[in-house]
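Quick illustration, no need to memorize.
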Amino acid sequence: MGRQRSIFSLILVFVATFLFGCGGPTVAKAPPTYTPSQLQKIQEYSTEVIAVRDRGSELEDLIEKQDWRRVGNFIHGPMTEARLAINYTASNLLPPEQKEARKISKDMLGYLVKIDKAAESNDRFEALNSYSAVYADIDRFLKLLPETQPEPVSES
């Protein structure tokens, strides 16, 4: 019986050593950050999105005037380029923001299709609703972006 206790104790020592050895302290990882190259690309592509956002009243005026040909030109031109810029920017964002940016791009495409269909059917109300949703998506996307302005250099 004494021999069994020593073998049992020895097995427990090995098991405890193994468990403590494998379960070592976890090393805290630094949060992911942007590289200068990523920040440069984000800034480059985001300027296109900002330019389209700033032209929002132009699209609204075209819808109000029911100038459907120009509405189509606008959504197939600058708006599509802005959506592509969102896609290009998304690949340079951190993983949580990438997921949200891709969702925004997908939602934006749906609203652009709705504007296009509303233009085909001369539905000003639907076009204005989708216009509002597109620009809300653009604003949501811009809030995901990191601050890309260089930090001021302090003179010593």
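Confidence is low (pLDDT under 50) at residues 150-156.
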